[in-house]
Design a protein that fits this description.
InterPro entries: Mg_prot_MeTrfase, Mg_prot_MeTrfase_C, SAM-dependent_MTases_sf, Small_mtfrase_dom. It holds the Pfam family Mg-por_mtran_C. The chain is an alpha/beta fold and about 240 residues long. The protein has one domain: Vaccinia Virus protein VP39 (Rossmann fold, 3-Layer(aba) Sandwich), CATH 3.40.50.150. The chain contains 8 helices and 7 strands; from the N terminus they run αααβαβαββαβααββ. The longest helix is centred in the first third of the chain and has 19 residues. The protein is globular, with a radius of gyration of 17 Å.
Length: about 240
């Protein structure tokens, strides 16, 4: 993946989440009523978010965690409640503004967090964000071609000392059919292009690269709820 290709792809994703479907994603990650399609996506995302959070220690005091593609910050809030210092990054400046407002409201109603959070709009690969104990990337890599997703993970691994947890879109006839059907949905119900893969194969091939010589495969879990299908994967620095 060239830098130009990466910039082009991130620009497409930013355009979708910052302009085309901002209000829809705010509703999806909140508690307002949503359509039947979005209701299944919300339920699936809640289950996936719980899975990813459960793969991290219950006590995260002293951990610095990157929430890549943090959106409205729901996962970040769960991690800081367990003591983590979280850096939430999202391409959408509008979603980051929404996350900051939610953080302010939560602190006002529940008091100071056990950990800390800082939200930033921009590139999750920016080295200025520093080093992390763990990286969580929920439904981010699904928007990149497999080879590009591996390169993104390599870049993140260089600055991660313990654990990377991420989701991939598992290739199947059902998912491919749903993605094809999605093209006929109204624009607000669409998402940017998703690239189905064989998650276990992608991770196995990734770990054969010399740059991942100090990493090993961890847990895997698939969530399939209505129009939401995603597979959680874990790699651990050995």
């Amino acid at each position: 993946m060239s830098q130009a290709d990466y910039i082009r792809r991130t620009g497409e994703i930013e355009h979708y989440f910052d302009r085309t479907a901002l209000d829809a994603w705010k509703r999806l990650t909140g508690d307002q009523p949503v359509s039947g399609i979005r209701a299944t996506v919300r339920k699936g995302r809640e289950e996936m978010r719980g899975t990813l959070a459960s793969w991290l220690p219950q006590d995260l005091t002293g951990w610095r965690i990157l929430d890549a593609g943090c959106g409205s910050g729901v996962l970040s809030f769960e991690l800081i409640a367990r003591g983590a210092d979280v850096v939430g990054i999202d391409l959408s400046a509008q979603m980051i503004a929404h996350a900051r407002q939610r953080a302010h409201d939560l602190e006002a109603s529940h008091g100071r967090f056990k950990g800390s959070v800082s939200f930033h709009s921009g590139d999750m690969l920016d080295p200025r964000h520093g080093r992390f104990d763990a990286v969580v990337a929920m439904d981010v890599l699904i928007h990149y071609r497999p080879a590009d997703a591996v390169r993104v993970l390599h870049s993140l691994a260089e600055r991660t000392s313990r654990q990377m947890i991420f989701t991939l879109a598992p290739g199947s006839r059902l998912l491919r059919a749903m993605l094809a059907a999605g093209k006929v949905f109204p624009r607000g119900n669409r998402a940017p292009a998703i690239y189905p893969v064989d998650p276990s194969r992608l991770v196995a091939e990734m770990l054969h690269h010399p740059e991942f010589s100090h990493w090993q495969a961890g847990r895997s879990h698939k969530v399939a709820v209505g129009f939401y299908t995603s597979q959680a994967m874990e790699v651990i620095r050995s």
